[in-house]
Amino acid sequence: MTPTEYRAPAKLNLCLYLGPRRDDGLHELASIFEPLSLADRLTVTEAERDEVICPMVAGLNLASEAMRLLRSEGWQGPPLRIEIDKRIPVQAGLGGGSADAAAVLRLAVGEVDDLAGLAILLGADVPSQIDPVPCLVEGVGQKLTTLTTPAEHWIVLLPFQEGLSTKSVFDEADRLGLGRSQEELDEMSGRLWAVASGGVSPLAYPGLLVNDLEPAAITLKPEIGIRKQQLQDAGAGFTGMTGTGPTLFGIFPDQASAVKAAGSLGDGAIVCEAGSGL
């Protein structure tokens, strides 16, 4: 088998509304996801046994778990060696691990039923990444509504050298009492759909681009606030935090303004085209 390369795009949470905590410990959410041109690369070849190699990730790897689930469902594909070239920062709120897991699940499209059901077992971000397109995400990540491709906009990411664990941010959000009622969450989902389904740039609705987890992330990593101000000073039309953080993002109307801003922010800034999936 000739090695085959697959892309695993990062996802951006343009907003993230936090709902009630459920009995299983998960939270109801409402968010707009869009894929980015920033992506991990997975090189897949046939091998004597299944093996996932990713030097950048220590311990449990979601891609390995995805392969294990496929086999448990009876997938008869040949044993595979999967090498992951990590380009998405780790523990950055960009869904890199989820993207890798979703890319593994895509290997069995048409051969294993209910891949979305397997995806939700791996994490809230994984179902949306099986087919990475702009979407409204509700529930605990399992309810997806595809959105019209938005008007052109570009993203400048400001990641940190050290990330934040998803669990620690949600735990801090619970401690701070940041969750909304289900009624308010449903109302916000409706408002998000109304604006984002029209194909406009998110710069057209900045007032809805709220991340309820940002105060919790700032409590754990106060320098988020400093870097956010730097991104604003660089000319972003909007600045926010993606997912559980700590990565910050700025939205720009075109590539030229994004590249110019990134140049003023130093080597750590990453320019991405928004809405670019597979």
CATH architecture group name: 2-Layer Sandwich
List how many beta strands DSSP finds: 10
| Global shape | globular
Query: Which ranges are low-confidence, i.e. pLDDT below 50, for 5 or more consecutive residues?
Result: none
Distance between the termini: 22 Å
Query: Which structural category do the helix and sheet elements fall into?
Result: alpha+beta
Structural features, described:
There is one protein chain. Helix 1 runs parallel beside helix 2 (96-106) and helix 2 runs antiparallel to helix 3 (115-122). The strands form two sheets. Strands 1, 2, 3, 4, 5 and 6 form a six-stranded mixed β-sheet that branches. A four-stranded antiparallel β-sheet has the order 8-9-7-10, covered by helices on one side. The chain is of the alpha+beta class. It has nine helices and ten strands. The radius of gyration is 18 Å and the shape is globular. It has one domain (4-273): 2-Layer Sandwich (Ribosomal Protein S5, domain 2).
Layout of helices and strands, plus pairs?
Elements: E1 4-21, E2 27-46, E3 51-53, H1 62-72, E4 80-85, H2 96-106, H3 115-122, H4 126-130, E5 135-139, E6 143-146, E7 154-158, H5 166-176, H6 182-196, H7 214-220, H8 223-233, E8 238-241, E9 248-252, H9 255-265, E10 270-273
Parallel strand pairs: 3-4
Antiparallel strand pairs: 1-2, 2-4, 2-5, 5-6, 7-9, 7-10, 8-9
Helix pairs in contact: 1-2, 2-3, 5-7
List keywords for this structure.
alpha+beta; Ribosomal Protein S5, domain 2; 9 helices; 10 strands
